[in-house]
Amino acid sequence: MAGWDLRALFSTNDRTLGTAEAFTNRQAQWEFAVAALAAHLRHVNAPGFDPADLEAARDNVVAFHGIGGIGKSTLSRKFEASFADPGQRPTQWGAPLWDAARILPVRIDLARSVNPDFEKVVLSVRLALAAIGRPLPAFDLALRRYWEHQHPGDPLEDFLNRGGLAVRFGKALPQQMQSALSDVAQALLLPGTVGSAIGQVTGVLVGALRERRRIVRALADCARLADLLESEPDLDSLSYYPHLLAWELGRIPAAKRVTPVILLDTFEEIGDRTHRDFERLLQRLVWLMPNAFFVITGRSRLQWADEALQGQLDFTGPSAWPGLVARDVPQDRVDLPAPGRERQMLIGDFSREDCDDYLARRLSTGGRPLISDSIRTVIAQRSHGLPLYLDLSVMRFLELRRSGRTPQPADFDHDFPALIARTLSDLTAPERHVLRSVSLFSSFDIALATQAAGLPQQAPALRLVERPFVRETPFGLWPFHLHALIRATIRGADDQTDDRWSATDWQQAATRALSALGEQWRDGSDRDRPLLVGCLRQGLAIARDYRLDLGWLTEAAWNYVGDSVWEPLDLAAGHQGEGTAATAAEALVELLSALARRQHENRARTVERLTMVADTGLLPAELSDMAVYYRAKAQRDLGHTEKSRQGMQRVADGGGRLAPNARRGIAHLSRLAGDFPTALAAAGNLGWEGRHHRVVGDVQWVQGNVQLAAQAFGAARTEGEEHGKRGEAAMSQAMRAFTLAFTTDLTIDDEIDLGEHLLAQVDLRAATLDVRIAALLRDAGTGTGVEERAQVLAAEISTSGLLFAQAKLELARAFHHAIRDDQEGVAHRVSRLRELTREGYYAYYVDIAHFMAGLALDSPSRAHWLDDQQRVRQRWRDMVIGRRAVLPSGSASGAPPSDGMTR
After folding, report:
1. pLDDT tens figures, 242-290
2. Could you give the 3-state DSSP secondary structure of residue 767?
3. Where in the chain is the domain with CATH 1.10.10?
4. Which of 270, 395, 667, 785 is most buried (CB neighbours < 10 A)?
């Protein structure tokens, strides 16, 4: 039983508790290894393969790497069992295409806990090969000579018994070695008393090999045996003896030949990037045994194909290890990796389904899962697919039961400090420092990591990003991010490691991280919108979580708002709840979140959120103005015009950055009330900051001066583009399309298409509705389902709380019915417009609907038109008549209404 299972078994008195081993999925890794091994077998069994060739590229290794606790050792053990006995292979793993009897697996754990050394590695390989049942004299003679020189008076058999290797592999090796020694002594005609003296035998054998005597012809073909027997029998020489093993294996007749599959686990514990002595010896083992297949599992990628390691390792570069050059193989990529293809795979996280399956089978009672569905769901969500987290949660489940409690789902919203210890165990002190620093970021690059850590050089960050718990998105704004569970645990768990950070340490790191983000933003282009948004998202989260001053975030917030793009910032989930802001950073988070979300929420909700922000008093005056101004805009959209006017006036009187916008807002309110001369006069004093051209267009189109309005909106779009304000350009083009859609202008399709194109780059709900209404106006009077489309659009608008958009839509529907001479349809739309404008704002829409249909007003107009009212009436009526003239005969008159109304 595995260690974890024993731990579970000894954690309870409940003898009915089942603690079966749970091995989940990893089918992709099995198929990857099997495909590579099949290719290896074809290669070594092909004519012309020479195991003594020391120059050919090597493709006899696959490597699996991943973060601590991902299940690498479990995978290695399962590989060994599956290669040794097909009956041990998980059912989901497909059967290999070779004879299992021809595969000889041996797994070697390199963990420090088992005190590995290179002698044990070599002995383990040789002991496993003892199962072949025949001596391997070339290797055995060299090994015997080495052993007696390095361990005088300590027989190999005693060493094997002490170390447990004899128990694991059997006791055949000493007998096979003695047999080889005796056979050689006999062939050399040495006396029996000398036959056991390895030094005597070696000396005579070397001479015979040099002279190529017939009596040693069985060994004479091993060209390098004499050299190895004459070399100093030290550890360095021992590392070349595997060449003799490869030669011996190559001599075995094909019918009896076996292929060793050597699994080297916990590879990360044999050294580090500076001390590669043990790794050099192991790499020689792999290189000198090209007819053996190696499966290496560890936390980091094998770097053997990196030419920069030349001199640290003997065999380096892409020409030596072509399969180790490429990037990680995606987990869904299980096709055959031919020579030169990828030989490394990142072991990924469990899927949510695999997590549930693992937990269901891990503990059972009466044949049913002991851990309930609800608890399994919480654990799976918190684990982010990391098997170690699942194991730790199982032990927590048993601990809670042992204390007399019934485990509940809330008990597993939990961080495990053990995850930190496992993650940090093989990192250097500078790497651990960088790791904690970058846990402040959702994503980062080398420069950010180094600055946040406060280090003078980038080397620790460069080493860290090579670790498997650092994921890479090459085309991201910042390419690196931590595994989600590792990041959450490092930031949230009670860290008991020796170099754990104090609260002050975290605060200082947060200050450095915020400053580093600010420097990147300031050093970027003024129009680098993704950089701005990315820096804001991360900077606001850090400032909020560590209660930092706003600093550069204030200016960044203005840049974010000034472009009217409104990318989602996704920040609200990070703090304790809306309305609970306790710092300026929390208030700014809520402010910007409310502004971004208003494109997707009812404007009443926007007013509520912005009121809470303004009432906190935490923001500096200029940012408080921002909350008041956008609240006033939302109030205007809802028809709360008097409250909107008060807010706009307050901001305008303050003279801050939004004062021109507020003066434009006041001009809009005059327009909404029908005071068009006042609104037009105000536009002349607004300038670009007050979006003067757009104000002119908004006043002119309701006069029926659609061409003048279209020109103004076109000028506003051009100004927006010149100033790099995509939001302003998109809003202006949307209104230009809306305005021209009343006419028979042949370019209307292009205008609508341009509006849609510009809006695709921003998030502007009201402008998007303007373009959709423009599409209805373009088709007004036709039988193309205008009313059905309008009903769908009306339902969408009703959820937004955008009163003016509802009124625009009803005006468009009145235009449609007027063209079709559908008086009852017009009457319904007029009635709806009266309902929407009963507060007096936008009331002139009722007048325009009458003008379109050629109807007399029921009561005097309250609007102050720019021209005589009759001229305004005629312009609108002419647009209806002009549209009828270009429609096919019969399509604009006499047709029944299509909105389902009862006559």
Report:
1. 999 999 999 888 888 899 999 999 888 886 666 788 999 999 999 999 9
2. helix
3. 425-487
4. 667
Cα 687 to chain center, whole Å?
45
Taking the C-alpha atoms of residue 655 and residue 737, their distance in angstroms, rounded to an integer, is 34
- The per-residue pLDDT for 188 is 62
Structure tokens at 876: 């609108």
∠ CA 231-314-342, rounded to 5°? 135
Give per-residue pLDDT as tens, 536-556: 999 999 999 999 999 999 999
- At the topology level of CATH, where does 425-487 sit? Arc Repressor Mutant, subunit A (1.10.10)
Burial class (CB in 10 A: 0-12, 13-18, 19+), 721: middle
In terms of C-beta density within 10 A (0-12 exposed, 13-18 middle, 19 or more buried), how is residue 466 classed?
middle
Question: Mapping DSSP to helix (H, G, I), strand (E, B) and coil, where does residue 65 land?
Answer: strand
- Is 843 within 8 Å of 671 (Cβ atoms)? no
User: Measured between alpha carbons, how far is 801 from 792 in angstroms, rounded to an integer?
Assistant: 15
The rounded Cα 723 to chain-centroid distance in angstroms is 34
**Is 444 in contact with 478 (CB distance < 8 Å)?**
yes
Of the candidates 707, 699, 697, the residue with the CA atom closest to the CA atom of residue 734: 697
Length of the chain: 903
Name the burial class of residue 189, with classes exposed (0-12), middle (13-18) and buried (19+) by CB atoms within 10 angstroms of its CB. Answer: exposed
- Could you tell me which of 665, 583, 584, 601 has the C-alpha nearest to residue 630? 665
Residue 706 — pLDDT band, cuts 50, 70, 90? very high
Copy the structure tokens of residue 677.
């001369």
Q: Is 683 helix (H, G, I), strand (E, B) or coil?
A: helix
Phi, psi of 872 (to 5 degrees): -65, -45
Q: Residue 360: name the closest of 385, 394, 384 by CA.
A: 394
Q: Are 448 and 441 in contact (CB under 8 A)?
A: yes
Radius of gyration of the chain, Cα coordinates, nearest whole angstrom: 39
User: The tokens of 463 are what?
Assistant: 């080493």
Distance of alpha carbon 227 from alpha carbon 236, whole angstroms: 13
Is the pLDDT confidence value at 861 over 80? yes
CA 232 to chain centre: 53
Residue 898 DSSP code:
S
Q: Which of 761, 679, 701 is nearest to 725 (CA)?
A: 761
By the 8 A CB rule, do 72 and 346 touch?
no
User: What separation in angstroms does the CA of 186 have from each of 134, 148, 219, 685?
Assistant: 17, 21, 14, 114
Q: Report DSSP letters for 122-182, one per residue.
A: HHHHHHHHGGG-S--HHHHHHHHHHHHHHSTT--HHHHHHHHTHHHHH-SHHHHHHHHHHH
Q: Please, which residues have CB within 8 angstroms of residue 164's CB and are 6 or more apart in sequence?
A: none
